[in-house]
Structure formats: structure tokens, C-alpha cells
Write a structure and sequence with these properties.
Shape: globular
Oligomer: single chain
Distance between the termini: 55 Å
Number of strands: 8
Radius of gyration: 17 Å
Order of helices and strands: HHHEEHEEEEEE
Strand order of the largest sheet: 2-1-8-7-6-5
Helix content: 25-40%
Length: 136
């Protein structure tokens, strides 16, 4: 029984992907999503550094300053007052990778983001956005 408890505890600790700073990938992701939904620039940047990259089809930004410019642009499109029009339909986390499936109902848009979180830092994020009509 004690061996099973040790194995279980080891699996739990490994699955949370704790960073050297003690921040789990799940915490980084949840706080970043909360910041995004609250249109909070500083909160969105909290777990990024100057090596962090956000990219999509044909574009890339790197570092906190460039990512700050991107998120301010995005907030201009998705934040109406303090309300964000994006809704997350599904969030899947596996180790240091997270998959976000989201939608913007007013624009009939769906999207897919993949984030890589390592040692308490979002090191990579890719963003793909589609009109629902692209699939009809």
C-alpha cells in the first residue's frame, strides 16, 4: 500500500509539471486565461519573458514588448468595456503542452491555440483563427 501511495504521489507531481519556481503549468495557464478574459495586459504577460514567442500563419512576435503590442491589438478587437467576447470551448493540458479551442460568437470565428509552458514560462504560443464558414 505504501508503495502505491509513493507511485501515485510521484505521478501527481510529474503530471503537474511543476517549475523550478514552484509554479505548475496548470497555474500558469489558468492565470493567463483569467488575465485574457479580464482584458488584463500585465496579467497576460506575467509568465512570458524576452525569449517567449507567439506566432501564427505568416507572422511572429517575440519578447514581452512585442507580445504586449499584440495583446493590446487583440484586446482592442475582443474586449468590449471590461467584457471579453471570446469563450473557451475546450482546454486540454498534457505535460508542458496546452491546447485551447475558442470562439468569438459575434464574428462567427473559431480558433485553436497551442501553448508550451516550461519552468513556469510560456515559451511558445501559436494561434490559428478561422471563420466558421470556412468549414461549410
Amino acid at each position: 500500500m505504501r508503495l502505491l501511495s509513493i507511485v501515485y504521489l510521484t505521478l501527481v507531481l510529474c503530471s503537474t509539471n511543476s517549475s523550478a519556481e514552484g509554479t505548475s503549468s496548470e497555474t500558469v495557464l489558468q492565470e493567463t486565461l483569467d488575465a485574457f478574459m479580464n482584458c488584463d495586459v500585465d496579467g497576460f504577460l506575467k509568465y512570458r519573458n524576452d525569449q517567449s514567442i507567439v506566432f501564427g500563419s505568416g507572422w511572429k512576435v517575440q519578447g514581452k514588448e512585442e507580445i504586449k503590442g499584440l495583446i493590446q491589438y487583440v484586446y482592442n478587437e475582443v474586449c468590449e468595456g471590461s467584457e471579453n467576447i471570446v469563450s473557451f470551448n475546450q482546454v486540454i493540458t498534457h505535460g508542458e503542452l496546452s491546447l485551447l479551442i475558442w470562439s468569438k460568437a459575434p464574428t462567427n470565428t473559431i480558433g485553436l491555440d497551442t501553448l508550451q509552458i516550461r519552468d513556469g514560462v510560456i515559451i511558445n504560443q501559436n494561434i490559428h483563427e478561422f471563420k466558421k464558414s470556412d468549414f461549410e
